[in-house]
């Protein structure tokens, strides 16, 4: 007992979670603007850089979390939960960056209405994810824990909307007279955007597990 009291405690992981989530929201907002202004090459380049900057900032936070995990003896929640949560959150940032890269790589000519709608859902999911993560430091409070679970349910609902939109978008692709290469490009972009919402739901599931185990 005396020995454990001498060991480093906490590590401010909740602060780092919130910082990372803030960068994700910045990336998702820039990604949405990237999609909305896709036909403007100058703005497209500007928002691509903003997404890249936010993703790099996320990487820095992940490295710091890993560093503190190695130096902290007693953590506020289970070490595996910390590791899984920050890495899954980082997957969201990576997917947003992959979205801008894929559109450049595939030379997508223009955004469809469904792409814009999916980008909006991605942004909403990221905002809700940030709100869910922000509750973790106070989940010992029953009301905060209840709010956290409600936010996780909201993310699940948004992800379900993205699933339905993906089905609608792909159905329309195959029903319209569209060149095969463009069809393949669009399908891949739709699937990639839906992956963002899937990964946000994965984060929500981790948050829900943490809340249920620690509240």
UniProtKB/TrEMBL annotation:
One Pfam family named in its UniProt record: PhoU_div
InterPro entries: PhoU-like_sf, Put_Phosphate_transp_reg, UPF0111_domain
SUPFAM superfamilies reported in the protein's UniProt record: PhoU-like
Lineage: superkingdom: Bacteria
Similarity comment text for this entry: Belongs to the UPF0111 family.
Protein name: Phosphate transport regulator
């Amino acid at each position: 007992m005396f020995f454990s009291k001498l060991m480093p405690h906490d590590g401010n992981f909740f602060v780092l979670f919130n910082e990372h989530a803030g960068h994700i929201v910045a990336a998702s907002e820039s990604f949405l603007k990237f999609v909305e202004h896709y036909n403007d090459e100058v703005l497209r380049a500007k928002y691509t850089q903003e997404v890249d900057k936010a993703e790099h900032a996320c990487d820095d936070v992940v490295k710091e979390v890993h560093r503190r995990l190695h130096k902290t003896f007693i953590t506020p929640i289970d070490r595996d939960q910390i590791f899984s949560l920050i890495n899954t959150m980082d997957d969201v940032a990576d997917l947003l960056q992959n979205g801008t890269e894929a559109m450049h790589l595939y030379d997508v000519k223009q955004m469809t209405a469904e792409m814009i709608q999916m980008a909006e859902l991605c942004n909403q999911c990221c905002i809700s994810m940030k709100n869910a993560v922000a509750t973790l430091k106070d989940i010992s409070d029953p009301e905060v824990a209840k709010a956290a679970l409600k936010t996780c349910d909201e993310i699940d609902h948004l992800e379900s909307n993205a699933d339905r939109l993906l089905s609608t978008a792909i159905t329309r692709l195959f029903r319209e007279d569209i060149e095969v290469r463009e069809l393949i490009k669009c399908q891949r972009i739709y699937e990639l955007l839906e992956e963002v919402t899937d990964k946000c739901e994965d984060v929500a599931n981790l948050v829900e597990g943490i809340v249920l185990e620690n509240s």
